[in-house]
Amino acid sequence: VAIEIVDETGSTNADLLARAPGLAGPVLLVARSQTAGRGRAGRSWQSAPDASLTFSLAWKFDRALPQLVGLPLAAGVAIADALHACGVDARLKWPNDVLLDERKLAGILIETAAARDGIWAIIGIGINLALPPALAERIGATAAALPQLAAAPDDLLAALLNALARALTEFGDAGLAPFTQRWNALHAWAGQQVRVLDHGQVRQQGAAVGIDDSGRLLIDSADGRVAVLSGDVSLRRT
Ligand code: ATP
Predict the structure, then answer these.
(1) Quick one: which of 48, 126, 168, 184 is 20 to 30 A from 33 by CA?
(2) Is the C-beta atom of 204 inside 6 A of ligand 1?
(3) What ipTM was predicted for this assembly?
(4) Which of 44, 2, 45 is nearest to 22 (CA)?
(5) Domain ranges across the chain
(6) 72 within ligand 1 shell (Cβ under 6 A)
């Protein structure tokens, strides 16, 4: 993996997405400061220099993967494993968040670009190393930061890159199935009452069970067990 570190950019995902057609191999792009971080569906990812770890990894899969929708889940497992190795008890919220003590510690945004012989996935990750007041104010009370005694940012980045590279190789070979059990073991809201919001409308509600091998969230609703595809839906606790 080629590693690039820049002082400042708008969005590491946007940069790698634009470069993807010309990339010769995997690239990790780290930004010391990211000024226009993105979330899903046009939402934004807030960060501040020295308080945030923001980076994207461009990774090419040799064939179009039917299960690409499961990639944020596999990446989530890799991130949680790396955080655990650094002493942080991270949990996962479907489909793309990493929580600490019920609040959002990290976000994952995956975007794709077609390649001649496969597909580029740009895996963008933002982690709160700290929450200085100005940053916390922009996000609200829903964010968490790494505990102060956790690993140094460089060590964390190395652990994350190693875990991600391993996970992406495995995902390319075998899809989401090898990650399903582990994801469910890390599931922050297992057994809890949730609702699935689609553009603000409640689409499903019930007890969150976990994910299936295609990455759908299983919910025990009043009508029985239903499976929800991620798309642009958000999950809330009730
Ligand atoms: P939701 O969090 O509403 O369920 P989501 O998980 O899809 O949606 P993303 O689009 O992945 O969210 O991330 C963007 C959202 O994350 C923002 O709308 C904001 O609520 C939150 N957010 C933005 N920056 C941070 C940050 N540094 N730490 C924690 N949360 C953040």
Answers:
(1) 168
(2) no
(3) 0.96
(4) 2
(5) 2-186, 193-237
(6) no
Going by CA atoms, what residue is nearest to atom 4 of ligand 1? 234
Q: Is 104 a catalytic residue?
A: yes
Ligand 1, atom 26, residue with closest C-alpha:
46
Helix (H) or strand (E) holding 17: helix 12-19
Domain 193-237 carries which CATH code? 2.30.30.100
Q: Do domains 2-186 and 193-237 have the same CATH topology?
A: no
Q: Side-chain half-sphere of 29: how many Cα atoms within 13 Å?
A: 25
Characterise 106 by phi-psi region: left (phi > 0), alpha (psi -120 to 50), beta (else).
beta
Backbone phi, then psi, for 216, in 5-degree steps?
Answer: -80, 150
CATH number, domain 2-186, options 3.30.930.10, 3.10.20.30, 3.40.50.720, 3.30.1330.10: 3.30.930.10
Q: Active-site residue 40, yes or no? A: yes
Marked catalytic residue, from 138, 203, 236, 237? 236
Alpha carbon nearest to ligand 1 atom 18, residue? 43
Is 60 among the catalytic positions?
A: no
